[in-house]
Design a protein that fits this description.
Elements: H1 11-18, E1 23-26, E2 30-36, E3 39-47, H2 51-64, E4 70-77, E5 80-84, H3 94-103, E6 109-116, H4 123-140, E7 144-147, E8 150-158, H5 162-171, E9 175-181, E10 185-193, H6 197-208, E11 212-215
Antiparallel strand pairs: 1-7, 2-3, 3-6, 4-5, 4-6, 8-10, 8-11, 9-10
Helix pairs in contact: 3-4, 5-6
Length: 223
């Protein structure tokens, strides 16, 4: 009995993809301002897809406050993080901002807090409370959303199953589709929410009776 070229599912790709988890992030930019002993703290919080996007956001914050005494910040993206005390004593600004992000279990988030010096020293504890508290309030009041990482996939199937493939992609809210054709059928690239992969594969299995090939993701980049 002959074997269809599209009867194999490469499990290595499937395992890598299904380990990706959903995360909670911000839906839009959020701000909060507080005055502590005549120093004014203004926090800006936003979603950040990459480190480059986080720095772009921070540059924008700085451009809005060119006369601020300090810009302190932190971000958490895909569980990775960085922070800066922005000229304040070590450990008094960046880390409290990061703890505010982690304390609300957020990811893909950047927070920048500017300070206008009010002439009164706050001490290490006062600075930590001011930076951390302002950041936490900006995050607390922000509109949030749960997202699933987008997984780039590459699928091949025969011409007779194209309508099944389209239906599975539509049902699972696939984005950024691109297709090529050859003598065997169609070769489709797309991006799927990671939490939709099981349903996508089940729809293909049922509709094609297993006559498809899931190739390794186009890229292992996490979104």
């Amino acid at each position: 009995m002959s074997c269809s070229p599209y009867s194999v599912l490469r499990n290595i790709s499937y395992v890598k993809i299904t380990h990706m988890k959903s995360f909670t992030t911000l839906k839009s930019i959020s701000t909060h301002q507080e005055e502590v002993k005549k120093s004014v703290f203004v926090a800006y919080a936003a979603r950040a897809e990459t480190q480059e996007k986080a720095f772009e956001f921070l540059r924008d914050v700085l451009s809005r406050h060119p006369d601020a005494s300090h810009l302190c910040w932190a971000y958490r993206i895909n569980g990775q993080y960085r922070f800066s005390d922005g000229g304040e004593p070590g450990g008094t600004a960046g880390q409290p901002i990061l703890r505010a992000i982690e304390g609300q279990d957020l990811d893909h988030v950047v927070v920048g807090v500017v300070r206008y010096w009010g002439g009164i020293k706050l001490g290490a504890g006062g600075l930590m409370r001011a930076y951390g508290g302002t950041a936490a309030e900006a995050l607390r009041t922000a509109e949030k959303q749960v997202e699933s990482p987008q997984v780039p996939i590459l699928v091949e199937t025969g011409f007779e199953h194209i309508s099944t493939l389209y239906h599975a992609l539509d049902t699972c809210t696939a984005e950024d589709r691109s297709e090529d054709y050859n003598e065997k059928g169609v070769r489709m690239t797309a991006k799927l929410p990671a939490n939709e992969l099981d349903r996508f594969l089940n729809l293909l299995r049922d509709g094609t009776k297993g006559q498809f090939l899931l190739i390794e993701p186009v890229s292992h980049e996490r979104r």
